[in-house]
Amino acid sequence: MKLFTIGDSISQGFMSLAAARTDLCFSTLIAKSMGLTVGAGYLYPEWLVGGLPANIEKILRRLEKKYGSDINALDWLTILPTLEAVLDETEDYYEREGGSADQPYPGGIEFFHNVAIQGFDIADSWMITPKVCKYQIKLSNDKGEGKDNFFGLPNAVFYRTALKVLNPSLNPIFDNHSQLDWLKHHHTSTPQGVENLILWLGANNALGTVISLEINQTPNDPDQILNNPSQDAKSFREVREEWNLWHPNDFEAEYQELLDRVDAIMQSNSNSDWNVFIGTVPLVTIAPLAKGVGPTTEIKVPGEEKPSTYYKYYTYFPFEEHTVRETGTLYLTLQDVVYIDECIRTYNKVIKEVVKRKNSQYPKPRYHIVDLANALQQIAFKRNAGQVQYDFPEYFDFAYPQVNTKYYHADTTGRLRQGGLFSLDGIHPSAIGQGLIAYEFLKEMKKVGVVNSRELDWQSIFSSDQLYSQPITLMHEFYDNKEFAETIIKLFGRNPLARNTSMTRRLG
Predict the structure, then answer these.
(1) Average pLDDT, stretch 136-155?
(2) N or C terminus: which one in the chain shows less Cβ crowding within 10 Å?
(3) Is 274 helix (H, G, I), strand (E, B) or coil?
(4) Distance, CA of 486 to CA of 157 (rounded, Å)
């Protein structure tokens, strides 16, 4: 097997709050660069009816088709039924119709080459199995959460998504196959094993902080982190989902465990020329969902050439500083964000040290760092006070309109005003953003000799990104209508006017 991918929502092609476009994600672009036939030599799940849990782009396209570029006063009387219709299609399909948990993936497919799953943190790679997913889906249904609800999302979304990725055929023989078990399976069932592994986990060990706008840190107790909860399915919701920021010591314990497990599997490979490409953890506070407002402060980070620009408050993208003052709840402080960033920088030091120790065991390096944290920090528009440091591919020089990391906005004439690198959830990359991630991986893969070129078909990538090629003309409603923005934000699993974090960690 030439390429296998283990990751979370970014590697899954999660865009605009839905597992929807794995065909556009970076690992698919890499597979094409390696000469693999997508759909045969490289299989990934395709998500129908807009994907799980709720596709914001699909919602806005539906509204745009019905109302045009403006929603007038009378139209607001009918907007909720329109939103409900879109959400109902997804809820029905994934709870009761062809995408439900008791329906196998079409075509008799037993496995995918890309087993990335939205919401996965490090330990989920060995802890979450189809058996766990089935248990949690049944538990949710028994609680009545699978009923057809107004403005509701499919229940147990995290587990429904994981089930279809980890056991698409629903064959009981694969019910104990985690992501790492599938890696082991391909080593034992394929003569060449897995030649190249993409491994990118860790963002969800911090991402929940910017989704919930609060910090719930793990207890700085590696033994508890690794051993309690165990594989017992009942423990996942009750313990792990309460955390949204791993203490660096707890992160180190889990990442060391991950690499130990991966290394034990890769050593059994009959192909002596295998490689593992490991992504670092991006600074999640750069994601435009968390919008910096208020006065700015420049902070010099040791080891970095120039200071980073931070804001007094970070709130949800449609809101301004006065919202922070009015609500008193919808924000992280500058100190919060600096602390989150320092945790993540320590995560990446851990990753590099663990990789260094692993490589010391081999005649030549087998584990290769792809420093996506550094790349995203260089690209970040506001963190760099508009002075972007990243060396974009040449195609970007005269691609108009230009793209950046600000939250997406287009005017009523269909002209992109800002953004373009993130999708509408303000967390996950757009198709163009996915292309840049592929570009970073290909740089390292070319150094190792896995691919001959780091070049990509950028014209095709830009064309495939409909947010860029067909901008949404009613985006101004996000910015002009606070109630509309709040309605959409509720899809993230949180009422924006209350502190409720029970669902927020499972979106990344």
Answers:
(1) 82
(2) N
(3) coil
(4) 21
pTM score, whole prediction? 0.95
Cα–Cα distance list, 166 to 24, 146, 272 (Å): 20, 21, 27
- What are the two backbone dihedrals, phi and then psi, of residue 7, each rounded to the nearest 5 degrees? -170, -160
What is the Cβ-side half-sphere exposure of residue 290, based on CA atoms within 13 angstroms?
A: 27
Query: For residue range 393-409, what is the model confidence (pLDDT) as tens digits?
Result: 999 999 999 999 999 99
Residue indicated by tokens 């999660």: 14
Closest CA to 382 of 425, 418, 329: 418
Using an 8 Å Cβ cutoff, are 468 and 420 in contact?
Answer: yes
As given in the structure block, the two tokens for residue 399 are 């691609």
Q: What angle do CA 150, 151, 157 make, to 5 degrees?
A: 110
Q: What is the pLDDT of residues 441-483, one digit of tens each?
A: 999 999 999 999 999 999 999 999 999 999 999 999 888 887 7
Pairing state of beta strands 308-316 and 290-299? Answer: antiparallel
Distances (CA, A) of 412 to 20, 128, 319, 471, 475: 26, 44, 20, 9, 8
Closest CA to 436 of 304, 279, 317, 316: 279
